[in-house]
Design goal:
By secondary structure, the chain is of the alpha/beta class. It contains 13 helices and 18 strands. It has four domains: 8-139, Rossmann fold (3-Layer(aba) Sandwich), CATH 3.40.50; 149-261, 2-Layer Sandwich (Transcription Regulator spoIIAA); 262-381, Transcription Regulator spoIIAA (2-Layer Sandwich); 386-439, Nucleic acid-binding proteins (OB fold (Dihydrolipoamide Acetyltransferase, E2P)), CATH 2.40.50.140. 36% of the residues lie in helices and 21% in strands. A five-stranded parallel beta sheet has the order 2-1-3-4-5, with helices on both faces. A five-stranded mixed beta barrel has the order 14-15-16-18-17. α9 packs parallel to α11 (285-298). 43% of the residues are buried. It binds 5'-deoxyadenosine (5AD) and iron/sulfur cluster.
Amino acid sequence: MTDARAPKRLFIETYGCQMNVYDSERMRDVLSPLGYVVTKKPDDADLVILNTCHIREKATEKVYSEIGRLRAHKERRQAEGKGMTIAIAGCVAQAEGEEIIARAPEVDLVVGPQAYHKLPELIARAARKTGERLAADFTAQEKFDALPARAPDGVTAFLSIQEGCDKFCTFCVVPYTRGAEFSRPLADVIAEARSLANKGVREITLLGQNVNAYHGGATFADLLSELAGLSGIARIRYMTSHPIEMTDELISMHGSEPKLMPYLHLPVQSGSDRILKAMNRKHDGAFYRDIIGRLRAVRPDAALSTDIIVGFPGETEKEFEATMQLVRDVTFASAFSFKYSARPGTPAASMMGQVSDEAKHERLQALQALLFAQQTAFNAAQVGRTLPVLVTGDGRRPGQKHGRSPYLQSVHFNDTSARNGDIVDVRITGSSQNSLAGELPVLATA
Ligand code: 5AD
Ligand code: SF4
């Protein structure tokens, strides 16, 4: 008989957004009392969880090819008299659960994003080979109530406050996979933040598909104020936001609350008013530019990040040029850009005028060249400045530390004395497209 308390190896592969990164951490927390220890390799894992993403076709395809690769590991382990439980979690599990069950007999368990607190029970059931492989739906609140205390593994942490989306952008599967908007009660969020702070966390990133649409008994701005009142928490960030939820109160907080970091991820998707309307984004380009103007008026150094889709159905060259112009006008510190990918069941998938892959490819190349140049220029503009850097760990080379600037840049700097969680002034001496290099300023002696 196997010892139920003997360490078992757990491998989790995370695809997609920060929400999945958060969920993977929570799955690890739920499984650790059962003796599961995280391993970096799937080859020898007792339990493999693929935490999947359904947002674009490519992300979904990856899941099926990964399942194919896992099959070989599972067969080898079975030949050695050991088992391997394969669980598929995340949005593909939610959206295509039945299909996975039918297509992939090696998968033992399919579990949707709201049922992670049931994992111990579901894994035990899979081991009994009951033949039941699909976990039923539960509500988001039930999941949050049942998850164990957090075990953060650093000085920065995600904190999920909101799930799901009611916006129904015509290209997006999220309202179908993650369901209706749900906000956690304010008291629960603050309790989790306090517990993270007590465990050494200094920077919290609030997460939600529409995080600034939060309505858990307080406005999002009120929640930020409460959080800023916790003494251990030095820095607050949030993502992902929707432009129409950027209230005056929230924008002015960026000017008045020093713990709120001067960095905002605010997806714009397109610079063309006609395309924005077809996307059902509920605002136009002028509205977006106005938010940015007001944000920069209260916080002149605010760095912007965004999401952009090229080749939405019907997008002409001229409409794409409107996106390029918006990017030139706003200037982003970083950005995610994608080719439009038709998702089954979404309105845009059956719209007329689907754009050829060739045109999408060309537009993406042009857009990314512009965005990369802006990102590189933004990083280069920090050289010579002294930035407060939150120390997060060891750097690339011996004698170096790694940290984060207020603008979410990675900073590698020469020092050995700073401890994780300290916020130290670092003089920036170099930059690349993705990170900064620096050193602690030498203090002048009197
Ligand atoms: N095709 C391409 N990109 C998409 N996104 C969402 N749905 C699609 C799609 N069907 C992008 C949006 C969103 C980000 C998370 O993914 O830009 O903000
Ligand atoms: Fe998707 Fe739009 Fe909701 Fe964002 S706001 S999750 S893009 S439907």
